[in-house]
Amino acid sequence: MQSTREALGVGDRKWQSCNMAVHWNLMGDWMRNFDSVLPEMLADGVKMNIYAGEYDLICNYLGNKRWVSALPWDGNEGWNSAPEKDWMVEGQRAGSVQSYGPLTFTRVAKAGHMVPMDQPVNSLAMITSFTRDKEISSALSSVGGRAVSRGKDIHSALDELARSKEQAPQRLQAGNRGDNMGHIHA
Fold first, then answer.
1. What pLDDT, in 10s, does the model give residues 47-91?
2. H or E segment and range at residue 118
3. Which terminus of the chain has a smaller tally of CB atoms within 10 A, N or C?
């Protein structure tokens, strides 16, 4: 939809699932160890959500959860003892969430590496919850006050989100780094 394109500022660019120019520009971030950066961010109280699709063969959720569990930060013991909860969107299981303090790990059900393509409604609920300081385990089933259902056009939901007058907290958003770091919202 044109209104979505305008809200995102993408002009007439055509979307591609794997754009090689973007790929090559991000190569400098591959195989970087973020073990020293993430604990500092957590110590400063920066909220982060690390997520992975349960069927992702590139950044599998088990490997991601293991490195998250091993992060050396002050809340490590609390995070490791926190329960993993079912994450529900519109009354259906969307995955699971483990959260303690500023750190959340989200396992997205029925999704591979391209989580937003595989689960657009659940991805929108996850990102909306995160950017509005809501717990992901109680993900919103509405965006901008309007219900988002699996039968509705995702572009309409994104348009509604773009028009929303609520100001989301500023967040650093980083995608897959190519080194089993998964997908991170911080």
1. 999 999 999 998 899 999 999 999 999 999 999 999 999 999 988
2. helix 115-118
3. N
**% of residues, the chain, pLDDT over 70:** 74
Taking the complete model, does pTM exceed 0.90, yes or no?
no
| Tokens representing residue 30 in the block | 């591959």
Q: What does the DSSP assignment read for 19-70? A: -HHHHHHTGGGTT---TTHHHHHHHTT--EEEEEETT-SSS-HHHHHHHHHT
Q: What is the pLDDT of residues 131-146, one digit of tens each?
A: 998 888 765 444 444 4
Q: How many CB atoms lie within 10 A of CB 14?
A: 6
Q: Provide the H-helix boundaries in 70-114.
A: 76-81
Provide the 10 A C-beta neighbour count for residue 150: 11
Q: Which of 51, 56, 100, 97 is nearest to 78 (CA)?
A: 100
